Amino acid sequence: DADVTQTPRNRITKTGKRIMLECSQTKGHDRMYWYRQDPGLGLRLIYYSFDVKDINKGEISDGYSVSRQAQAKFSLSLESAIPNQTALYFCATRDDRGIDGYTFGSGTRLTVV
Amino acid sequence: GQQVMQIPQYQHVQEGEDFTTYCNSSTTLSNIQWYKQRPGGHPVFLIQLVKSGEVKKQKRLTFQFGEAKKNSSLHITATQTTDVGTYFCAGPYSGGYQKVTFGIGTKLQVIP
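The joint structure predicted for all components is written out below.
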């Protein structure tokens, strides 16, 4: 099994719909992150969580919300999807000591039509 | 906010040629990380550099961290088709060692 699992892998949704992307990890790390990847823009941080009770906005949090249901689970929601939220979304985790880099999930390709 | 600038954005090389990508920051970085993302895949952590002037090697890959800790490079010797992908550098946000900002990446294409 993958260390970081994201579901779904692909999703097409309509403008205005609410959608949730899910992420779970087996690394036992407290720190989890949601990134968005767009061509030519690299990876941009949406939200991050350093433990179950700690949620923080990243650089592009508008239009998104998150929920940290447990140490291993961190979900991202689009409250009312819009076409410019079409992107590749990655969940990641990292150990608390910061010795190693991020472990990314396989990504969710989201298309908003 | 702090940014890491990465060049070039694209690079095509003939198989067997060398390749280098550069990462630059306007501020001193406490560390820098490098990742590789294969086409259709996800970023995979390669290495983290921490010390000024540090040089690390992984087979044909050589990573350097500048003396001023404001720049870094990844050099691949004698590229192979398996090296195809996008290489990202990432540096910590100012004052936050557990958040990083990613460069836009260098997309490497290797021509057989």
